[in-house]
Amino acid sequence: MAEYSALSIIRNALSGNTNWKPAWRKPDPKPSYDVIIIGGGGHGLSTAYYLAKEHGIRNVAVLERGYLGSGNVGRNTTAVRSNYLLPQNIRFYEHSMKMWERLSHDLNYNVMFSQRGVLNLAHTPAQLDDYTRRGNAMRHLDADAELMDVAAIKRLMPIVDDSKTARFPIYGGLMQWRAGTARHDAVAWGYARGADRRGVDILENCEVTGFIRDGDRIAGVTTSRGEIRAKKVAVAVAGSTGHVMRMAGIDRMPIESHVLQAFVSESLKPILDTVVTFGMGHFYVSQSDKGGLVYGGDIDGYNSYAQRGNLPIVEDVMSEMAALFPSLTTVRVLRSWGGVCDMSMDGSPIITTGPLPGMYLNCGWCYGGFKATPASGWCFAHTIAKDAPHELNAPFTLDRFHRGTVIDDKGQGATPRLH
Amino acid sequence: MSAIRIASGGRIDRSRAINFRFDGQAYTGHPGDTLASALLANGVTLFGRSFKYHRPRGLLTAGVDEPNALVTVLRDSVREPNVPATTVELYEGLVAESQNRFPSLQFDVSAVNQFAGKFIGAGFYYKTFMGPEFGPLKGTRFWMLCEHFIRRAAGLGRAGLAPDKSRYQRMNAFCDVLVVGSGPAGLSAAAAAADQGANVMLAEIDSRFGGSANWSGETIDGTPASAWASEAVAQLAKRSNVRMLNRTSVWGYYDTNTIAALERVTDHKPMGASGEPRHRHWNIRAGSVVLATGAFERPIVFPGNDRPGVMLASGAMRYANEFGVRTGERIAIFTNNDTAYGAALALKRTGASIVAIVDVRRDASEKARHAASECSAELLTGYAVTATRGGKMLDGIEVQPFDGQRVSGAARKIDADCLLVSGGWSPAIHLASQAGSRPVWDETLQAFLPPQPTENWVGAGAFNGAFQTADAIAEGHAAGLAATGGTNARKLTPPMVEGFAGEPNPAPVFEIKGKGKGKAFVDFQHDVTADDVRLAYTEGFTSAEHLKRYTTLGMATDQGKTSNVPGMAIMAEATGKPIPEVGSTRFRPPFAPVSVGSLAAERFGDLKPERLTPMHDWHLEHGATMYSAGLWFRPMIYGAKGETVEQAYVREAKVVREGVGIVDVSTLGKIAVQGPDAGEFLDRVYTNMFSTLPVGKARYGLMLREDGFAFDDGTTWRLGETEFLMTTTTANAGKVMQQLEYFLDVVWPDLRVHVTSVTDQWAGAAIAGPLSRKVLEACVQGTKVDNDALPFMGIVHGTIDGVNVMICRLSFSGELAYEVYCGANEGTRVWEALMAAGKPFAIVPYGLEALGTLRIEKGHVTGAEIDGRTTARDLHLDWMLSKKKPFIGSAMMDREGLVDENRLQLVGIVPLDNRPINGGAHIVEQLHEDHPMNSIGHVTAMCYSPALGKYIALALVKGGKARRGTRAYVSDPLRKRFGPVEIVSHHFFDPDGSRMHG
Amino acid sequence: MLITCPYCGPRDVVEFTYQGDGNRTRPDPASTDLNAWNAYVYDRVNIAGDQNEIWQHSGGCRTHLAVTRNTLTHKISSVRSTHAEPPAPPKPARKKPRAKA
């Protein structure tokens, strides 16, 4: 398949744009593969891509229940950052950040990663100290972070309410300039195209209905498109982890599925250059290249597999937006939607071998799966290929909960809705 | 296109003029006009520029589905961008401007984009702008450079910087039946439900109730439909069980029939009345809902179909019948169904000439033929429009014979200044889609019909596919009854409806592929063309969702109301699959855009409540700088003139160590734990014993979470055999309460214990320092407070200034200290009495900073150390872990991850350069200022210690216990603070506690 | 989403706090079976369908409720107090016509 470039666009345009090829094939399933990846979202597709690219494992199928990228990779608010507190998370997400910086070239697909910065606003001196702890933790692990004072924040975002009389006045902020946003769908499509070009079969509308066992070992799956066997079966279905693992006979997991809503406003001329988070509550916003403000807040707070939420969170999110940007109350919400998140018991993910022989598990991404997409696939591919985790994902085991080696960035304990 | 106001007809009041401005130019209109109808009546044809190609655009519709005519409405300096001119009611002094054009609407330099159309079709961004892999524009830099310009070119309206001063209001409402839409079906449903005695709410998005009755031109039982509707509305308005909301867009269908609606209260007025909100956000809990939301007409896709002057037939009919505006002189019609013939008749009645009716069908119905001859129009059946002519305004069309698939033969030119298009109708199933399963494709209507409900709603009228007014009224009646479960129904006499009502069943023609050069638009606002849809097909983006995401079809401000079905039809043709197999996008809230302000409502400007202690005003009057702690406000320092924060807290803390100070502790969480099993309950909740605590004594307690990590600490006082008063940290009061309630309700329902939050019932003041007892002796009546009467951790009851008080001798500062509690209403009185009694002893009030200083000197922990990741052992509180009994967390606290020697443990830190090191600084073994690495922990709290005469800090450091007495470095690259430190015990001051026991 | 509290009647979800999987049983306080404790604290049924859950009417009577709710549709099929027999449900108080606005 031809490389994408400015030249290819011109050449195709001159021939009426009829010679483009499908971004990925739509093959029929083969009876067996070396590796099956359940889940055609960002993580499943990137895993397939790195299996082929880094480990030469090309006899791979990605199984997607609906259309490719129909889960959270196409439903998130597109922020990419590595501004975590705990070293295990910083190392992993910073590795991901470095992969993002090269991703468009690597994939020959413009994922529009724009390093426009992610700014966390602090509203009390104690909160700023807390953010400083985090920023310093990042700096000690090779990630970038700096503090911003109120004047600099106002210069960066003239629409922000910097008044001292605000209910929660801004006291300062923690900025990660290398962080930013990417075009979410493009990430799924770029990985799909890259994996496909390396021989991976992407099987859409292929719903897994059960697991095939060979003794104790997982040896394949039954699907809506027939039985498919494989030496290794990898699960990357964040949002539906509980549901899929139940088919494998594992009926309890350290995960709850929660619905997270997101919102986009009508398109506006550029008014917000960075990603910004409000510190007294939970609110994050950026402006897309099309001009819409893309924003969100807390999960609804109850278990759900429905991609729809309820009004209380809608009202919470909007009131935080109005508090931060009191001139944007006349701006109108255009669309809202919901995605189902795997909320883990410590707010950190799981990338591991097992829990059954022949099985590999990638789940528990909470709010944060999109930015992890490159590193998650890269680490998961390593784990599948080598039957052992890479040191970056070694802490993200399934048994860490029982052992007490939790990675609890927010310090909330085993209450998933609070992570 | 040369639109004019006709002499009579419509809902407008020609006797009054309204002045308004658009793009700086003054116009007049009439009450009843929208900005769109008034501008049209003034001969304005150019309303906006499209998103990507900046093409000139006129009006396509007359309603909420308008994709082209977006304007910014200005009120003083407050801007409201992206409002369809079709939904802006005219008011005196209205100022609006067009968008997305530079320098002007007439001449927009970015219109050059359209000539690059071939190169910037769907998805082109993904294939380029990646830039070089090496050099100064490597990585993401080249893309970000390009993006800078792309962002400036994109976007529609401009939002303002001036804060919105409007008020917004949130309303809760409850009703038995909510009727959405007040066309004939909705009015009939509301009347039927109201007849059954139900509480009915009727919501209409428009300013005028009546829906299509306002413009259908029909008569119902001999009266004009608009008058019939007015009468029906008047009847409903008389009923006490009906609440009617116009200008109200029902936009969200949430779980358990919770409906969200936006009422635009003052948008149509020059100025709202005093206190009147701009918008109301309604939360309506409806027993059942009648959806009578009608249908949207959709265009046919053909080359040049976006030229100003091309509009939907129903839009032109509304302008004619409802607003008294003739949209052109020489009007052509292009249709695939009979309804457009009604528009032809309506326009004919305005005095326009209907130059041609171009119908893609080989045969038109008898009714249609009759209508065509009635308006003396040339009827071209088996023809299609294949091109439009004109510049920024239509002056003619080209038609060619069409066999249902292809055009052929010679093009014929027809002069026309207005082309009315009808490509069939799509029921407005948006709300149903939010509360239903997949919509159902109907071959006859060539449209998606409502899905099976998953919530309690019934549909009626065009929403259901019942387009004839008589049917709609009958369906509405039935729906109103069904919604109430009514049985004693008045039998509906079917109304006599007269007028031209064409069947909406269209020929399955969605696109005309002409040989002409013009682009054929599917999504007008986002400039998605039929070729873009085919490009998406070629590249494999064939499912409805991929089509939408790859081309942005249906993602503009109109959310695809006119474009979704044509787009899917073109994809269906490309894939050779029937339309329903391409899929249907699920509609998501909101149905129409909703202001952020309305959703924030009362919280706009006042995000969260302020919690103030009873002594708040006193603190302000005495120079306190207040500090926001969660929702609470607490004094940080009581600074004297010219004092820095550090000077103030050092002075305050020093007084506590040497004399006496007083601090407001009312914010501590306070929970009454009462009942025969209260002691047993506390034994299970705390790591240490409370059942053995004598009455009249207090004890410091520690709680863990179930997972074995530290949770909260505080003192709990035994006030009686079966009564305890628990105190918690300020931050965790709510969480602790919830944990206690959970265990009592869910885990140990057999325990006879009741817990009550009494945080707000008690005011609390701590007085601390060697002279504190003398202060109490000077003001406390009714009890002694000497060491015998009130030993360490003892509790006494007495009065201060006649107010009942409870005094416990306990110490957070490490000094001789007491907490004095009284009823919240008397807090200031007792506080002032303590201040008066303390005056001879030079008592000073102290704030959080001094409180923090005193506790750091003592090595006491707070939320900075009990941060949800530390264990009792990490904080050297293992002496509090009882071995005699199980407690919450006891089974889990010894797991390997919680007992690792290398965990972060609490230590003291002394900077050897005696300069401050702030919270959040890290600790390292080896200093690398330029490339910080290998953090071993972080500083949690810091102060200048007046008692020790130096800066000290608390920190959590890996394996901290074993590092006491060793050297390390502070590494704070964010604040550029580096330097040597010594790691010491966290007990800096008076480690054996002799001062507080004294 | 409305939840019908047995004490307060149907109330909006905003008044309630989700307290997690209702299928868990806390081990005996004295139990030292770490597996049982771990399962109780960390493992969830998290079913796609009807699920037993605990909710607290935190913005109302503060009772904990055992709720059966479908996680795919959010439909609630039963609500009861976690420990007491529920009282007779309150009669809906909105039969009398409401004055119009």
Automatic annotation (TrEMBL), chain A:
InterPro entries: FAD-dep_OxRdtase (IPR006076), FAD/NAD-bd_sf (IPR036188), Rhodanese-like_dom (IPR001763), SoxB (IPR006278)
GO terms of molecular function: nucleotide binding; sarcosine oxidase activity
Keyword hit for Transcription: no
Limits of the Rhodanese domain: 35-79
UniProt keywords, alphabetically: Cytoplasm, FAD, Flavoprotein, FMN, Nucleotide-binding, Oxidoreductase
Cofactor annotation: FMN; FAD
Catalytic activity: sarcosine + (6S)-5,6,7,8-tetrahydrofolate + O2 = (6R)-5,10-methylene-5,6,7,8-tetrahydrofolate + glycine + H2O2; sarcosine + O2 + H2O = formaldehyde + glycine + H2O2
GO-annotated cellular components: cytoplasm
Entry's family note: Belongs to the SoxB family.
Classification via NCBIfam families: soxB (TIGR01373)
Name of the protein described by the UniProt record: Sarcosine oxidase subunit beta
Species of origin: Mesorhizobium denitrificans
From TrEMBL, chain B:
A GO term for molecular function: sarcosine oxidase activity
Domain Aminomethyltransferase C-terminal: from-to ranges: 905-990
GO biological process: tetrahydrofolate metabolic process
Oxidoreductase as UniProt keyword: yes
Residue ranges constituting the SoxA A3 domain according to the UniProt record: 517-602
Superkingdom of this protein's organism: Bacteria
Residues annotated as domain FAD/NAD(P)-binding: 176-436
Keywords tagged on the record: Oxidoreductase
Pfam families, per the entry: Fer2_4, GCV_T, GCV_T_C, Pyr_redox_2, SO_alpha_A3
Residue ranges of domain GCVT N-terminal in the record: 615-885
Record field: transmembrane: none
InterPro entries cross-referenced by the UniProt entry: 2Fe-2S-bd_N (IPR042204), BFD-like_2Fe2S-bd_dom_sf (IPR041854), FAD/NAD-bd_sf (IPR036188), FAD/NAD-binding_dom (IPR023753), GcvT/YgfZ/DmdA (IPR028896), GcvT/YgfZ_C (IPR029043), GcvT_C (IPR013977), GCVT_N (IPR006222)
Family statement drawn from the similarity comment of this UniProt entry: Belongs to the GcvT family.
PANTHER family: AMINOMETHYLTRANSFERASE, AMINOMETHYLTRANSFERASE, MITOCHONDRIAL
Listed name of the protein: Sarcosine oxidase subunit alpha family protein
Organism: Mesorhizobium denitrificans
Automatic annotation (TrEMBL), chain C:
InterPro entries noted in UniProt: SoxD (IPR006279), SoxD_sf (IPR038561)
Gene3D superfamilies linked to this entry: Folate-binding superfamily
Compositionally biased residues, Basic residues: 92-101
Superkingdom of this protein's organism: Bacteria
GO molecular function per UniProt: sarcosine oxidase activity
Annotated GO biological process: tetrahydrofolate metabolic process
Span list, region Disordered: 75-101
Protein name, entry field: Sarcosine oxidase subunit delta
Organism (species): Mesorhizobium denitrificans
